[in-house]
Design goal:
The protein is an alpha/beta fold. Helix content is 50%, strand content 19%. The chain has a single domain (2-163), classed as 2-Layer Sandwich (Nucleotidyltransferase, domain 5). It has helices at residues 41-59, 75-94, 104-111, 119-129, 138-154, 156-163; strands spanning 2-7, 12-19, 26-34, 63-67, 99-102. α1 (41-59) runs parallel beside α2 (75-94), α3 packs across α5 and α4 packs across α5.
Amino acid sequence: MRVLAVDPAVRNTGYAVLEGDARTPKVLDFGVITIPQVHAQSVALAAVHTHLSNLMKKWQPDEIAVEGIIYVQSHKIAISMGAARAAAMIAAADHGLKVYEYAPRKVKMAVVGKGTADKAQVAFMVRALLQLSETPPADAADALAIGMAHLQASDPIRAKLLDRRLI
């Protein structure tokens, strides 16, 4: 299975392409789509959509995994994050791909074993588990973690364990 995982944000969208299964994940690509503040939000969202669409054309993923809605204190941030998620979902729909959503706590549980892990812990475990030579930027590390959570959720045995919070 090949999955494109997305940590959506208007200005810094993390992405990762993983292949294989939960036991043998292989990283094909990862990075951060960075859109400068000088661009209007609409331009930034179009750029996120275009970049993700180009990644889908290049890597031909079977599925898309996206971070689910998170609780934020600011309505403005929540709306902005929702718009970035929509840009990713529309790109997936354009390519006929099914979108799977994962709550941040589930992603952290899948990678770190603790649903309250911080970004540094997630990045450290992503680097270790995927045997990367360097720690990826935070947004890319989050996308890699989302991809790993998706591969685990796609494995029937691991999915049951994840739901029971045993891994």
